[in-house]
Specification:
By secondary structure, the chain is of the alpha+beta class. 22% of the residues lie in helices and 36% in strands. The mean pLDDT is 85. The radius of gyration is 21 Å and the shape is flat. The strands form 4 sheets. Strands 3, 4, 5, 6 and 7 form a 5-stranded antiparallel beta sheet that branches. Strands 8-9-10-11 form a 4-stranded antiparallel beta sheet, with no helix packed on it. Strands 1-2 form a two-stranded antiparallel ribbon. The two termini are 41 Å apart.
Length: 205
Amino acid sequence: MSYPSARRSSVVDDFVSGRYGGVKVPNPCHWLEDSATDESRSFIQEQNAQFQEYISDPTLASSRKLLESTLSMLHSLPTLLGAPQAAGNYCYYRVAGQGSMFPITYRAPKTTLIHGTQGTLDVLKQSKIFHDEAEDRGAVVSSGFSKGGNFGAYSSSITGSARCTIRVKGTDTKQLLSDFLVDVKFSAREDAVFWLGNIGFFYEF
């Protein structure tokens, strides 16, 4: 079986290190950082086509059915993504699954999560949606909340690129602020958005 060929370029990224100074890192597959380009889409389609050819083999019929049923079951179940974040009088937690393509961030009173002994489904019933990632059609890769709990900031990758957009949303109004940051690199770390009290937040660029 021959696999789709991935073009390798001569691109080299320059980074500044406090310890080593300037560092050059080869990045031959940089074009795959943006999954929305024609070249990336074509490569992904070739990979998918090859997988379909492989999984359609009649000798794999029973394995294919088991894979489909397992994935379907996992997709329908709620999956907690990371530890809840406390801000003000509430806790915010991100849940995947439930038949949704994109995860959803919920808000619940602190007492529900800290002192409660309920299961995930019961907690979900007492929670309200704070942010549905389907609205942006981009996965949230990091987030943080102001100490008082008035604002939440999150970075998301709309096209699958390593560069993200950081937006700020009011926690009570759930309205986005007009200002936002674009083309932010290194924001895929979980702690990439770090608030200084209620003043503002730090981010790496």
